[in-house]
Amino acid sequence: MEVDSDRLNSFMGKMIGDVGAAMNTSLILLGDKLGLYRALAKGGSMNSAELAKATGTTERYVREWLSAQAASGYVEYDPAKGTFSMLPEQALALADEDSPVFLGAVGHVIAAAFLDEPKISDAFKSGKGVGWSRRSECLFCGTARFFRTGYKHHLVQEWLPALDGVIEKLERGAVVADVGCGHGVSTQLMAKAFPNSTFYGFDYHDGSIAAACEAARAEGLADRVHFEVHTAKTFPKRGYDLVCFFDCLHDMGDPVGAIRHTRDSMADDGTCMLIEPFANDRLQDNLNPVSRLYYAASTMVCTPASLDQEVGLALGAQAGEARLRDVARQGGLTRFRRATETPFNLILEARP
Q1: Same-domain check for residues 56 and 156
Q2: Which of 42, 207, 245, 285 is the most buried (most CB within 10 A)?
Q3: Rounded to whole angstroms, how far apart are CA atoms 46 and 117?
Q4: Domain final position from 79, 98, 117
Q5: Do 191 and 315 sit in the same domain of this protein?
C-alpha cells in the first residue's frame, strides 16, 4: 500500500483537531456546570484568580481550564495583561442560554454518550436496543437544554405559522398533543404563546414526565398544560387539533404505528407536525458537519432507542423526507409537505 504523505499529514491534522475538540467537550461541560462561561462573559477581562473568586472555584484549576479554552479559540487571551475575555460571538454560543446559537448544553449529551458506551458496545454485538430508561440521567436534561435553543427561537415564530390554518386554531382555542415531550420544553413554549389552548404532553419515560410536571407548576401553567406517561401508541384520543412530534419520531420502534394512532386521535381537520433533524434522502448528500453530528447521535442514542422497542424500525436521525413521507402515508396521513426548514431541522406537515 502506497501512502501519500500529503494526504496523511492532512488527515492527521484533522484527527488532532477532532481529538482535541472531543477532549475539550469535557471542559465545556465543566464551564457550563460551574458557571465559568457566564461569569467571564459578565465580568469582561479577568485573570484566573478573579474568575475563580467570582465562581467559588480554585484558581489553579481555573487557570488550566482558561488556558485550554484560549487554545480552543473559545475565549480570548491578552498576554500583555495576563487576562481572558469572551467575544460577543463566543458568549452567545457558550454563556447565554437564551441565545439562538447556545451550545453550552452539548457537554451533558456527549458525557452521556461516553458514560453509556459499554451498553452501546454490548448492543452492537447482541443487536438489541438500549432504551431511554437505561440511559444516564444527564442525557435527559442535556437533551432538553440542547433542543430548547431551536424551539425557543423558531417554534412559535416560524414553524407553527408555516402550518396551514394552525395559528388561527391555536388563537381561538385548540387541543394539542405533544408526543415524546421529554421535559416538556416545547409544550410549555406553545402554552405560553397561546393561552386559549389546552396542551397535553406524553412521554413513556416516567422521570421526564415528573420533571415536566414540576416545570409546568413552576411556570403557573398546570391548569391547561397536562403531562402523562404514555407511549406514542397509547396516549388518549381526544380529537386533537394539532399533534406534534419534536425530534422523536425517528427514535420510536414503530413510527408507523405511532402515526396510525395519531390519525385515530386527531380531529377530522387536524394537523400533525413532525420536527425532524435536517437530512437529505441520500447518504452522499449528507456528508457534512451537521449530518456528522446527527449520525453520531443516532448511533449512540436514536438507533439503540428504537431497537429497544417493538418493531424496531430504527429510522435513525437522518431518515430524510422521503422515508418520513412513506411512514406518514402508511400511518394514514396522506397529505404531506415540507412546511419549512432550518439548517438543523425539517418541519413537516402531515394531514389525513
Answers
A1: no
A2: 245
A3: 38
A4: 98
A5: yes
pLDDT in tens, 80-108: 999 999 999 999 999 999 999 999 999 99
Query: Strands 198-203 and 225-229, how do they pair?
Result: parallel
Which domain, by its residues, includes 17? 5-98
Global pTM reads: 0.93
Whether residue 128 is contained in a domain is answered as no
Residue 1 reports pLDDT greater than 90: no
The CA distances from residue 238 to 37, 168, 234, 270, in Å, are 45, 19, 12, 11
Contact predicate 277/286, CB 8 Å: no
> Do 296 and 203 belong together in one domain?
yes
User: For residue 84, what is the domain's CATH number?
Assistant: 1.10.10.10
Contact predicate 341/278, CB 8 Å: yes
Q: Indicate if 53 and 171 belong to the same structural domain.
A: no
Pick the closest to residue 182 from 217, 238, 232 (CA basis). Answer: 232
CA-closest candidate to residue 104, choices 145, 46, 51, 45? 145
Per-residue pLDDT tens over the stretch 130-142: 998 899 988 988 8
| Kind of pairing between the strands at 225-229 and 240-246 | unpaired
Cell of 240: 386533537
CA–CA gap between residue 114 and residue 23 (Å, rounded): 12
Number of domains in the chain: 2
User: Who contacts 63 (Cβ-Cβ below 8 Å, separation ≥6)?
Assistant: 48
Beta bridge partners of 16: none
Domain membership of residue 347 (yes or no) is: yes
Whole-number Å distance between alpha carbons of 103 and 28: 9
Strand partners, 77: 84
Question: pLDDT tens digit string along 190-232?
Answer: 999 999 999 999 999 999 999 999 999 999 999 999 999 999 9
